[in-house]
Write a structure and sequence with these properties.
- A ten-stranded mixed β-sheet has the order 5-4-3-2-6-7-8-14-10-12, with helices on one face. A four-stranded mixed β-sheet has the order 1-9-13-11, with no helix packed on it.
- The chain has helices at residues 27-31, 46-50, 68-73, 88-98, 114-127; strands at residues 2-4, 15-18, 39-42, 58-61, 78-80, 104-107, 134-137, 141-146, 150-153, 159-164, 170-173, 193-194, 199-204, 208-213.
- It has two domains: 12-144, Thiamin pyrophosphokinase, catalytic domain (Rossmann fold, 3-Layer(aba) Sandwich); 147-213, Sandwich (Jelly Rolls).
- The protein is built from five helices and 14 strands.
- It is elongated and about 55 Å long.
- It has 218 residues and is α/β, with parallel strands linked by helices.
Length: 218
Amino acid sequence: MKLYPLAEADITASAVIVANGNFPVHPVPLSFLKNKIPVVCCDGAVRKLLTIGRMPTVIVGDCDSLSEKEKLQYASIIHKISEQDTNDLTKAVRYCLAQGWKDLIILGATGRREDHTIANISLLADYIDIAGEVWMLSDYGVMNAIREDATFESYPGQQVSIFSIEKKPMSCEHLKYGFENVVFTNWWQATLNESLGKIFTLHVSGKTIVYRTFKDIS
């Protein structure tokens, strides 16, 4: 059974993707931008990344968020993808996979427009088919997609929300509000749960997104 550590622990990743949502200020997501692994920036997020003195390895997207001056300034690291069948986050993920970078951390995918936030979170359920381990971090917590039984490192009182994507039976261990072989039919139904200890376990048979809060977030 796969074990997912706390995001505060060392997570091995091949690359970090910075999307154009709310740029992180929490020390946990920011810490991954201090590593020496490649940083793939969705085009409009480059300005935010530069505010912390980090130059992206590559800028990926349709470049509609860049000024003409920026397109010239960063021409050597721009990888333009004009097709509109996917959003910039998925373009960045596919770019990473083409480089052989399969274990990914995604920052800046939430906040600002709610439709972008919902779409980006839901994409975790697609990335599980094409990538390795994908972690999506905000200033409040971390999200992972699973499709088989998994155990998560936790702490007593950690807030946990579970989103059933494929509406298949699901059970849990060590959560305050327990459930066994339940089919959740709407995203809200397994949210706002709470961990009882240092781990909790989910038994799933379909794609599921799991959210855990950081320890210092109420």
